[in-house]
Design brief:
Elements (H helix, E strand, L loop, with lengths): L1 E3 L3 E4 L5 E5 L6 E3 L5 H7 L11 H4 L8 E7 L3 H4 L3 E6 L2 E2 L2 E5 L2 E6 L6 E4 L9 E7 L2 H7 L26 E3 L2 E3 L4 E2 L3 E6 L4 E10 L5 E10 L5 E9 L2 E10 L6 E6 L15 E9 L5 E9 L4 E4 L2 E2 L2 E2 L2 E4 L2 E3 L1 E6 L11 H13 L4 E4 L8 H10 L2 E5 L11 H18 L5 E5 L4 H4 L7 H22 L5 E2 L21 E2 L2 H4 L15 E3 L8 H4 L13 H5 L6 H12 L6 H25 L6 E4 L22 H9 L3 E6 L18 E8 L5 E11 L4 E11 L3 E9 L1 H7 L4 E9 L2 E9 L14 E8 L2 E7 L4 E8 L6 E2 L4 E3 L5 E6 L6 H7 E4 L6
Parallel strand pairs: 28-29, 28-35, 29-30, 30-31, 31-32, 33-34
Antiparallel strand pairs: 1-22, 2-15, 3-4, 3-5, 5-11, 6-10, 6-15, 7-14, 8-9, 8-11, 12-13, 16-17, 17-20, 18-19, 18-21, 21-22, 23-26, 24-25, 26-27, 36-37, 37-40, 38-39, 38-41, 41-42, 43-44, 44-48, 45-47, 45-49, 46-48
Amino acid sequence: MMASSPMHLIDLHDISWKFGESGKTARLPAKVPGCVHTDLLANGKISDPFYGTNELELQWIGHRDWEYSATFSVPGETLAEDHVELVAEGLDTLATIYLNDRRIGSSENMFIARRIDIRRHLKKTGNQLRIVFKSAEHYVKSARPNHNPRDINDPVGRCTVLRKEQCQFGWDWGPRFVTAGIWRALRIESWSVNRLDFVRIDQRHSANQDSVRLTVSPRFATSQPARCTAILSLDGHEACRSESLVDTDNKTLSLIVDAPRLWWPAGQGLQPLYDLELIAIDSETGAEIGRRTQRIGLRTIELDRHADQWGESFQFVVNGRPVFAKGANWIPSHTFVAGLERSHYERDLRAAAEAHMNMIRVWGGGIYEHESFYDLCDELGLMVWQDFMFACTLYPHDDAFLDSVREEATQQVERLHHRASLALWCGNNELPQINKEPLRDPSTRAGYEKLFHALLPEVVTAHDGATPYWPSSEWRGFFDSTHTDGEKSGDTHFWEVWHRRAPVSEYERWQFRFCSEFGMQSYSSLATQATFCPPDDDNIFGPVMENHQKNRAGNQIISDYISRRYRFPKDQAGLIYLSQVNQAYCMTVANEHFRRISPRCMGAIYWQLNDCWPVASWSSIEFTGAWKALHHAARRFFAPSLVSAHILQDEQTTISNYRKSGDGRVDLYTVHDGVDSRPAVLRWSLHHLDGATIETGERKLTLRPGESTRQKRLNFGRQLAAHGTDRIFLRTALEINGETVSGDTVLFAPPRFIPLQKAKTKITARLISPGEFCVTFKSPVFLHRFKFEIEGQPTAWMSDNFFDLYPGNAKSVTIRTTASTTRLQLLDRISHRSLVDSY
């Protein structure tokens, strides 16, 4: 949250805006912030862009020029000021601005805010503001003709010549909708004498964290001296203050915070946020010239890279404590990013925190997110790995381009540098990884280094000074040839599983220092599918489903991985279910492995958390907000205290040799992220599918902070031989104070070979409060990956789902529904399935 108070402000959002195609007279109502696609939709001129194959029919929009215009008045007090400025926080993208038929400015960078003095062009009434947006589609085809980078994403083309949200041009999870419009705030600010422009905040912590020195550096529009007061408060109570005259000799204020309440990532402590208010008074007139409040967290975050027994560490250290980064990659929350608000972010970021995540990586092909995104990350304890907006392909490096990037980076670093959640600035996504051969050319590499090894780190140092900079993700130096380098240093994007169709066990071959991308696709639920797909056109290889699968061969790859582990589904619902169960299984294998090998590996950031439209993708949360099986699994594999069973198993085994797969060895590990040691009990029990318990065991232990420990090696070779690998399963549980905090099932054969039984599940419900119920499920037989849903409420919150039901053991889940739902209505609307019901 950041607030600034100029002398006079006129919000230009609520005036009557019109838009239309350039060169044509027809004009329609428009919304600001907004874009041409959403305005056309609101006026009934186009059909739902996400439905069916409508995307293909709407490509003409990006090939036209568009205009937005409005008429407004200004009060006399505004005209009486010395300076009256038009402030445009974001114009998308090739914009020329006219006021009363005079050209007053332009922009060619979506990520730069513009401030234009308009006083001499204004009149009291009847001011006409017009913004013309040229076609970005046309621009990228003709601009910088000598720049022809390798095109890794074939829909993207040459979009790198323009500083615009790159995934608008299409990606392997998103549509191609090349937008135009006023996508962020637009206002008029007026002032005289001076104006508070920016406040930099630097923290210096004492060695034992018992005090913090804050250095506050205000910047003004002129060199006129100002008397400034800085007030730091927490929960409305003043902690300290400082007053000083800021002029050419003294440019800062200092505050000492004794006994500071430190900000911690989720799971490591609390997230107290202080308010730092700066009030600036003109030293001659005594008039207030600016007031700004920023929320800050008192903390240190370092990217620790020190020599160790494996090479060089890659870990985030917060307030002196190494923290295993658990999280997911973030793409824009909507295909049309104009005017996003807190509500567009809160659902998915809260879901991330509920899944015990502590880090979100903002991917470099989207946008620098709105303030509300960072507000929520500050509040929820989600550290932000912030990419600069560069992804996959090479970029120009001429002077004009670099000048634009410098201004963009400066603005974004200044805007976000104070954020408690900001953990890393990263230059780009995958450029060195994808462009190894082009970068062997000395001139191409020199141009690349100008941008990512000189310009961006210089901006971060100059305008942040505390947050670490990392040149690329992944990055281990130029021309590293194998994943072996990732076992020694840096971060790794691992896509052998999925893109190269390697077996899921391939994750366990590698001892990466930090894995910042890896993933497995699945389909969205039937309810989400219904928002874009006609019920009679849902074949995954038909035009609609293929248009909502943007990864080349994606549907074939999903089918391939399903077939290795599961039987052929009997219908579309079964296919969707299996794709999600398979995705959850793959990500469980990967994430538990990365956690087991800590502290060698100190981060797992899977691809991806969210969707920008309804689609088949790697997300764990569907566009509608429904949690896939993966997100429920993430709550388990990211649990603060985890029991993880490791078993060698080949998911590609055949019927002729599956009984020979594995030797009956199971290694039981515990991983503990908590800040204190905890006594715990590890339990395990071996069961037959007929319900009999073959044997049980337990071990008392102590969980220590930051430790991954192999607690027990079990050997069930004799039992497998006696009962058959397809007839028994192992159940694990980790208990703290009598409560099971982690647990799962180990299967000794691929599920497609296991003769699972069907049975009627007993369901009971108890009202907790209006709209909140405790629902209990009980089955007489073992049901694998039991999924339930509520008819008409596909996004209802559930504390767990896609779990295992054990014979005769009740499983209770908390459900939040609409407040008017009764217990009987809920029971009537619950439907369920497990693996055996999919075929």
